[in-house]
Amino acid sequence: MDRLVRFVLSHLAFFTYLLLVILCSWLIIVNNQYQSTQYFNTSNRLAANIISFSQGVREYFSLRRINADLAEENAKLRSQLEHYAVNDSMYTDTTRRFEFVSAKVINNSVMMFKNYITVNKGRADGIQPGMAVISSKGAIGKVKSVSDHYAVLISMLNVDDQMSSVIKRTGHFGTVQWDGIDPRVVNLNYIPRHVTPHVGDTIVTSGYNAVFPPNVLVGIVQKASLKDEAQFWDVKVELAQDFSQLAFVEVVKSYLKFEKDSLELSTTGQIR
Amino acid sequence: MNRVGIFNVVYFFLYVIAQVLLFKRLVLFNTSFCFLYVAFILLLPIETNNVFLMVLAFLLGFTIDIFYDSLGMHALALVTVAYLRNYWLSSITPQGGYDAGSSPALTNGVQWFLVYTVPMVFVHLALLFFIEAGGFGMFWFTMLKVMASLIFTVSVMLMLQFFSVPRS
Predict the structure, then answer these.
(1) Which among B70, B39, B59 has a CA at the least distance from the CA of B154?
(2) Which of A167, A190, A241, B13 could be bridged to A137 by S-S, CB 3.0 to 4.6 A?
(3) pTM (2 d.p.)
């Protein structure tokens, strides 16, 4: 025992290094687990306050564009409202499946491999990990962790994130995933050989997972190619939302997610 | 705590604030990042104890991680730099040795400074980006990011040295 202690002490630097590396690796693994509740990220109160201060300063320089975006969205919503006023029968159970909470982006990145977005709404506004997030232009991502007044979202520009989507024209579904290179372009995987996606096809969310509402715009097919031996198409999708210009997002509360998941779990034994 | 110690506590917070408010936003060509905070560990006095260095590196890396939502990654990379630093310093000792109580700064010459910082920053960036990419799946693109960031980070470090170190 005495010799062991002396051995450790004589290599103290190495053992400290080993200990710290194990600690860091554990932290990395915990952080990569999807939807964990944690305090050491930008939803942390102090960190979020510093960041929203800095965002507040920067925001002045993009007010004109944000204003134009909001006005455009207003016009769109008004025309939709007109539509609903005529069609009262639209208010069925399925249209009330979702509720939207508007939130302001205070932190955002697009250049890393794993990008996260921080917004200024949290548990106090009913936001829970796992909820979907959209903007007026398209799908954004999912909630990763929440604190009382802030939430960290896992952006679609995150190599770990996957999202079920369909080609609107043909109805075939695949999975949207980012490859980590160009922040304007994502891949649409698992589109089988017999389908022919065209350049310009619209890609929307499928609604199969009850997290995302169906028919939220994801992007437009930019390039589609098929290798000789490949089972699936290589489809490049240009995102509808420019993630580097994100100012406001809407968090989607899904009322039927729990019901759908428990039904699927009891019939097939797994949640899709 | 002596004068150098107090200065370094201030530097710690200055590096964190500069990194999360300024350099986090400053990304050139979508590939070139500036992780200036590595300079805090690199520029601590030469006699600093190895274990103490690593504990400081962990604290700094962890603080940076909070703002980057990347728990553990910056800490791991920076702790490795801190572990290697003193070994690297002793193997590149200039003729006549270091001055007592000095920092490994530009006073030893530009060439020496580059020999000291470039491999250290490379280790930091390579660890950081390859851990973030989750392996070697995108080797060349990740390598491009590492090299572009290496040039950016070392250039900024060098420029700040030119401004801050009194030249004889």
Answers:
(1) B39
(2) A241
(3) 0.79
